[in-house]
Amino acid sequence: MKKGKMFRMGLLVLFISVFMIVSWGWAQKYEKYELSIAQLEKYKASIDDPAPFYKNIEGYKKIMPPEAYKRVTYDVEAMKKTWAEVIGFSAPDVVGKVYPEIKPGKYTYKDKEKLPFDKVMWKFMYDHFNPPPSSGPRHIAYFPEIEIVPTRQYYPSLPVAEATKKYMGTAKLDDQGYLMEDSYTAGYPFPRPDGKFKAQQIIYNWMKNYNLDGEYYWEHCHGYTKDLRHDYEDNATAISIRLQGRVKWEPFGWLDERAKDQRELKVFQYTSLAPRDLYGNVLTITSYFDANKDDLFLMYINQLRRIRKMTASDLQDPAVGQDMIYEDWQGFQQKLNLKRYPYKYEVIGEGEFLVPITIDGSPYMSSKENCIIKNLQFERRPCWVVQMTGLDKNYIYSKRIWYVDKEILYLHHLDNYDQKGRLYRTYTSLWGFVPEMGIYNQTQAWELDHVDTHSTNCITYSYPALWLNRNDFSMSGLVKAK
Fold this sequence. Notes:
With 482 residues, the protein is of the alpha+beta class. It has a single domain (40-475), classed as Lipoprotein localisation LolA/LolB/LppX (outer membrane lipoprotein receptor (LolB), chain A, Clam), CATH 2.50.20.10. It contains eleven helices and 17 strands. A five-stranded mixed barrel has the order 9-12-13-14-15. A two-stranded antiparallel sheet has the order 10-11. Strand 6 and strand 7 (296-301) form a beta hairpin. Helix 5 packs parallel to helix 8 (158-167). It is globular and about 60 Å long. The N and C termini lie far apart (57 Å).
């Protein structure tokens, strides 16, 4: 009798222990492996440094513990094969069909007189393939010299590719072209956009991307006036976690019951380290399934020791010190909603474009040469051009024009026009690719204001953060600086 009771008690303890381990989550198998801004910039400084970041860190081997690195790296050939099957092509096989006289090699802006670069660059890229103006209002991010390299095949991580393949065709749009969220499970919802709502499908692929789906992130931004005077600098770190459609590591599917009950998609938390007056401020964004439900924006203001809930109208405010609004983060973070700020969606073009992408992380901005970008490699990429025309005059932008990669389904460049029809802000991403992981880093973002002629260059890197769990994003987690 006594032995039986002890046995039952032992089973109960074992059950509770297992339950607690499972509930604590996969993340607890890994200790934090955070890298500070100072540690990061030993590998590559934010400006005036040609160092090849990815080579210096050996594809993140110097940052991540071996067991964590192994967990998020996959067979490259398997990723290539699977993704080509999913989308129906690989980029090297579908480009090179137009203007073949523009071959791989090194070029300067003077070659624009001899070769039709205007046919394979969108206007922003063509205009900036020049020396910067010597006087008058001007921006950063001109590039007098480039190298064109053969087009490479890109792909997402193997679990994302396999999930996209598994659930292909299950995601549905309603009769207005808006995603029926309960029809989406995981992966990219529309890997082969087509039909009446093709433009919206392309945008939903971007909105469901697996960038920053569970990562630790650094940012170092520099702002410049119209005469290229350096007037702003910030440092920040961030963490992010995907709450639904999880496929890379446990827990799969939903992160937890709360995420499922609340229909939460992602949480992103951004902590300012500089300038001094912003030190300790923390922004946390929780996004939701329901397009009619505002995402939750909470701002901890360190100097006031208060947490402020931001309203939907706040999201059109300029992000402090940068040339974008909160809904421009990473190019586009606005929810597609028929009731609030609706748009007309169109695919207005598609074809080959020369696009900058890096796999060694060596491009940099030279402050000593009028803020030009050096070490840029371009390659031919198949792209769509999507136009969103605003139907509500109360929104800050009247029109947005996207340039989206057909293979990686990522946004390369965005033109935003104000309500007077003027080009207001542009956003350009220089994506860095990590082949063994199948992930992309926004190594540089060029944010330009064309009305006030101001510029921001943000240097960013991120890596998978397997230790993250719900506690890292709690209300108490907002209060990080004393």
